[in-house]
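Recap from last week: sequence in, structure out.
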Amino acid sequence: MTYVEPEGAFYVFPNFSSLLGKTIKGRKIEGSFDLAEMLLNEAKVAVVPGIAFGSDSHFRLSYVTSMANIDKGLDRIADVLK
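Predicted C-alpha cells:
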C-alpha cells in the first residue's frame, strides 16, 4: 500500500488499490467498505472507508493514540493482509 504523508492532520489515507478484486480471509475486496468491514472483523481495527472522502481505493486511519497502539493496529492489519 502507498500513502501521501500527512501535512498537519492526524489521519493517513492509504491507497489499497493493489488489493481490489482479491479475496482475503474469504472476503472479496471490491471497495473501501469491503476492506473496512474485513479489517474490523478480522484485525479488530476500525478504519473509515475512503469512499466517504471521494476515493473507493483508499481508507482513512487515525493516529491519535499511543505509538504502542499504532504499532499493534498496524501489526494486526499486516497479519490479515499477508
